Amino acid sequence: MNGIPAEFEQFHWMVDMVQNVDVGLIVLDKDFNIHLWNGFMTHHSGKQSHDVMGKSLFDVFPEIDGAWFKAKSKPVFDLGTRSFVIWRQRPYLFRCRNVRPITQQSEFMYQNVTLNPMRSTTGEIKSMFLAVEDVTSEALAELANI
């Protein structure tokens, strides 16, 4: 492979995928400090990764109810199970602009968010990653039929 070690090439692929996947990816530690902020989140939130890395989620997004989100996160850290925030319960976790304002009449992006445990090599859960999915089209279609 052109003299480049396979492990390095695979690492490069992973970084490229994380930055360019059409899903928001965020890594939080147990203190809710941000350790990863991918390109989707930069594009949709308008917040650059260098401005959020190492900061508390609640400082960057003060509109998130800390007590509620910590309760949502408890099963992730304590039991190693996933937790979910679906748009029907709460339209969004992160107030992001709707990137298709002409074709979709919504001032914000509806989201489904999955909170996933991240295990260390020893099996301990010290972090979680959030997968943020834009479900604006589906939400607006469902709301139009109500």
TrEMBL record:
The UniProt entry, under SMART domains, shows: PAS
Q: Where is the PAS domain?
A: 12-78
Enumerate the InterPro entries for this protein. PAS, PAS-like_dom_sf, PAS_fold
Provide one Gene Ontology biological process annotation.
regulation of DNA-templated transcription
Q: Which SUPFAM superfamilies match?
A: PYP-like sensor domain (PAS domain) (SSF55785)
State the protein's name: PAS domain-containing protein
Q: Name its species.
A: Aliivibrio wodanis
